[in-house]
# Entry
Amino acid sequence: GIQVEQSPPDLILQEGANSTLRCNFSDSVNNLQWFHQNPWGQLINLFYIPSGTKQNGRLSATTVATERYSLLYISSSQTTDSGVYFCAGREVGTASKLTFGTGTRLQVTL
Amino acid sequence: DAEITQSPRHKITETGRQVTLACHQTWNHNNMFWYRQDLGHGLRLIHYSYGVQDTNKGEVSDGYSVSRSNTEDLPLTLESAASSQTSVYFCASSAGGGLPDTQYFGPGTRLTVL
# Structure
């Protein structure tokens, strides 16, 4: 199966700062998604982004499928952005099963 | 609004007992998944289903079973609970059928096996 590597593993930001989270895949994937797990444990789907760039408010994501990586940008971070960010992708030819990275833990402080 | 729910949210049981965790979605999604989340392992797939009467094993399926008798529900059964199955369990669903396969997660069930 594919390996999904996320960096950095941990990140501490002051409120208002910007950050970039990275996700690398060991092999070609499709169906790439980003999730946020809030401090209460709820997993929220942020982006479905198999390729290209999408933006949603202060968050945006870019996937370069040919180079097997994806980036999540957080601008003007807020304390509510704290939690763990996961990326996940589907190995080409393995219908619907996602493989998850181990996450980036983000803490935004005042 | 469509949603995915799990019950119970918290469960404490004893080793050897049979336990069933419920998952119910109102998205009318074809695909449903069960994951467990443990420190150091991230999210691991237990079982999944692409439709009624269809079930498949994931990477950590030993000791678990599922059945899919309708579109909305995919209960997860631990046949004989073991302490190694103490974990947080998440159910998820996605549309399937060639549509963008965004996965939506339930709130999770925290299971403790004593």
